[in-house]
Amino acid sequence: MTHLHDEKIKFLEEKAVAIRATIIEGLVEAKSGHTAGPLGMADIFTAFYFHILKHNPEDPMWEERDRVILSNGHICPVLYATMAHSGYFPVEEMKTLRKFGSRLQGHPHREYLPMLETSSGPLGQGLSQAVGMALVDRLNDGLSSDRYIYCFLGDGELNEGQVWEAIMLAGKERLHNLIAIVDRNNIQIDGFTEDVMPLEPLVQKWEAFGWHVLEIDGHNMEAINDAVNEGKAIFEKPTVIIAHTIPGKGVEAFQRDYKWHGNPPNKDQGANALAELRTLGGQIVSEHE
Amino acid sequence: MNIPLNPKLFDTDVEQAPIRAGFGEGLLVAARADERVVGLCCDLTESTKMDAFAKEFPKRFFEMGIMEQSMASVASGMAAMGKVPFISSYAMFSPGRNWEQIRTTICYNDRPVKIVGSHAGISVGPDGGTHQAVEDIAITRVIPNMVVIAPCDTIEAKKATIAMAKTTTPTYLRLAREKTPIVTTEDTPFEIGKAQIFYRPQGTVRVGIIACGALVHNALLAARELENDGIGAMVMNIATIKPLDRDAIVALAKECGAIVTVEEHQVAGGLGSAVAEVLATTHPTRMAFVGVHDKFGQSGKPEELLKHYGMDKEGIKYAVKMLLG
Prior knowledge:
The complex is a heterodimer of chains A (289) and B (325).
Chain A: H1 6-30, H2 36-40, H3 42-52, E1 67-70, H4 76-86, H5 126-139, E2 149-154, H6 161-173, E3 178-184, E4 187-188, E5 191-192, H7 193-196, H8 202-208, E6 212-217, H9 221-233, E7 239-244, H10 267-278
Chain B: E1 16-18, H1 19-33, E2 37-41, H2 51-56, E3 61-63, H3 68-80, E4 84-90, H4 92-97, H5 99-107, E5 114-118, H6 136-141, E6 147-149, H7 154-164, E7 171-174, E8 179-181, E9 196-199, E10 207-211, H8 215-228, E11 233-237, E12 240-242, H9 246-256, E13 258-266, H10 271-282, E14 286-292, H11 302-308, H12 313-324
Parallel strand pairs in B: 2-3, 2-4, 4-5, 5-7, 6-7, 10-11, 10-13, 13-14
Antiparallel strand pairs in B: 1-8, 6-12, 9-11
Helix pairs in contact in B: 1-7, 3-5, 8-12, 9-10
């Protein structure tokens, strides 16, 4: 994808704010679900769906589309909200999140929302599926060389042994058409990742398995875009982008606190969060207040 | 209608071949006919009989190393891109170790991945209990969308492999290691979901024996000896454990009045349980269950183990006589 000009960056940043608001509205309505991860990944999802990805919301099953595998399915509110803002389904539908009969299941389920590339929730299984997709694309002798397979993972998820199986396999197969993005937000349900099960030195671990590794600020649109471009330019290896993010990003009260990993805001907390987002942290003062 | 079976079926020198060999042959046929067919294996390519496929289609074969969990999910990703992946390992490890990957990434996603579990049952023999999968039917048939097939011999395994390559459903194929008697012929019909009567005695029928896998042969031997003892026993081969041929089972129960199931598997959750679920809700019938009764396997020769756990010909006859009183 092309480089970002200032106007596009501004557009993306505003879009990310709107997506964060939709996430909060959905979670308040659902009364359960995960808050920190979806807010932390909102910038990256916005950059992907509004700039990086080759996709067509009007034709979700378009054969040549890039593939997005969400491995840490519990952050699906950010996937749903971003897809809705992209035009896959009405933004209003976010209010059905986690409710009976909704297409927006608590963890993604293809049977309910067939435009998803996979179902997920149980951790550690997405990268293996992405490897399978990348292997098949390469089997087609470059016919789809313009298509990339993206896999989003959480950092706590890297505790799962299966992830390292997939990392080993992708390294063996030198899958240049595979780009993994790790949400390095340092929290998991029981606490900080380095207390629960240390991951560091994370860069060296991926490198040792044959990956090209990039570290970025996951809230910087230019950095996100540049990293994906660099990943596409690397031909001999798969690429992993370790995106340092702030869990709960955008709402002061939720930021960096692992207690917000698996809990939703209540009505008041949600209203405060929406006010903070819509005033861009108090920078904009509404004349009605 | 009489189903054509091997004429040497009851002879002591009946031809023998491993059930897994039929899978290897069937996979070649399926792969030649359909380029969507790909194969993945976890460091057991010769053992699971995927080697001929790997040799003929090296680009369509993926050596996964010893990672059964990833293999299941990689195959799901391949199926999402239009392939029909066959994944093979020992049944203990796939669908044993990777059960949740199969549930979530294959069945929950409803992807046409074909799971091939070789070396199932206690007749793996000397390797001992760690390698003797006697729970695999239970853990696969309980997952929605899954089809479960346990062929009775190498010929039926070949037909099952060719048939399952053409379906869009996740499917588990259960194979065995040892050479076992060839029961069917090339002309024996095979259809996923259809049970078949393999033996019908002269005169009055008092019991129906429903069997799957290599033990179908023992069931046939038992039925013939029971007939000589004056007990008429029909034998049904039920290769497809899910979806079950409910009509055929109910018809058999109505005709026989008593049912004995035979499987190289735990009696809890396997073929016998599946048959009992059907009969309990349609035509309650006295039943007995031949299989492993809540025990792990152990080292030994296959015939020693089958005798010890009561799954040989004598064990089946005993179960029938106890049931009929």
